[in-house]
Design a protein that fits this description.
elongated; 3 helices; about 80 residues
Length: about 80
């Protein structure tokens, strides 16, 4: 269920600019930032680049874009 949240104008303008560059909606950009922020807080020892790649990999699995790897095949 969607909820309305008040955020300051400076953050909205910044999110709009990045959203345009990243081809996301304003809401999508704010959700992305929130997801990244939560992941960083939960994993303070991991670099941002690794967290980003892990989130991307998780999304690929959910989207069905990966195949199970079977060890020993193809040798």
């Amino acid at each position: 269920m969607a909820q309305s949240v008040k955020i300051n104008d400076e953050l909205v303008e910044s999110a709009k600019a990045v959203a345009r560059a990243e081809h996301r909606s304003l809401a999508g950009q704010v959700e992305y930032w929130a997801t990244i922020g939560r992941a960083v807080e939960e994993n303070p020892d991991l670099p941002f680049s690794m967290i980003r790649e892990l989130l991307l990999a998780k999304s690929e699995v959910v989207s069905g874009l990966v195949e199970e790897y079977v060890f020993g095949e193809g040798e």
